[in-house]
Amino acid sequence: MQSAADTVPCACAPASALGAGVGALPAATLAARRDWALGLCQTARLTLTATRRAVLDFLCARAAPIVVEVLVRDIVARTRCHFVSVYRAVRNLEAAGVLRPAVLAGQRAVRLACAGADYLVCERCGQAAGVGDIGDLRSFEARLAARTGYQIQYHWLEFSGLCHRCHRLNQILAA
Q1: Between 20 and 30 A from 85 (CA), which of 13, 71, 150, 163?
Q2: How far is 25 from 10, CA to CA, in rounded Å?
Q3: Which H/E stretch holds residue 111?
Q4: Three-state SS across 118-145?
């Protein structure tokens, strides 16, 4: 089965464009991420309700994952969406493969499941940093596909930890 990730390219933000919140991504990147997400929704035959569109618009503008409760609170505050509808939209978008689950500061979080969106995300403050060139991983993925005969749809590699600032703060507090 072919996924929309194969047919609709995703132009995720390069490391230099990463930021912790809304407005951190260039307009072209934001548009490409939105087009990718909308294409995946269409392929999954997921009706784009106002609530789902609000969730997508919010997450397309973010480079980093966001705690689900924070996402819900922000969308409810900005729109006329009911909080139950926002939780349902998140669940439906995850089931369709548009969103990926994540953990941030020990809490359930989500992020756009954009192909090639590999980041280091601090578990405490949420600061995101692009992984950069992962040619070795792409090479491994190609060898794995050739060896097993699988058509790999995507990979999900996650590193968990603290940014330099939060790590330093832990050291100071432990002293």
Answers
A1: 13
A2: 14
A3: strand 107-112
A4: CEEEECCCCCEEECCCCHHHHHHHHHHH
Helix, strand, coil distribution of the chain in percent, nearest 5: 50, 15, 40
For residue 52, give the nearest of 44, 19, 156 by alpha carbon: 44
Say which CATH number the domain at 168 has.
Answer: 1.10.10.10
- How many angstroms separate the CA atoms of 124 and 141, rounded? 30
Nearest to 58 by CA among 118, 111, 113, 117: 111
Q: Give tens-digit pLDDT for 67-90.
A: 999 999 999 999 989 999 999 999
Residue 55 confidence (pLDDT) above 80:
yes
pLDDT at 83: 95
Write out the two tokens for 141.
């993925």
Distance CA 63, CA 116 (A): 12
Q: 22 lies in which domain range?
A: 4-174
Number of structural domains in the chain: 1
Q: Phi, psi (5° rounding) for residue 61?
A: -85, 0
| 3-state SS, residue 8 | coil
- CA atoms of 58 and 78, how far apart (whole Å): 10
The reported pLDDT for the residue numbered 156 is 67
pLDDT tens-digit map of 115-145: 555 667 787 877 777 776 677 787 888 999 9
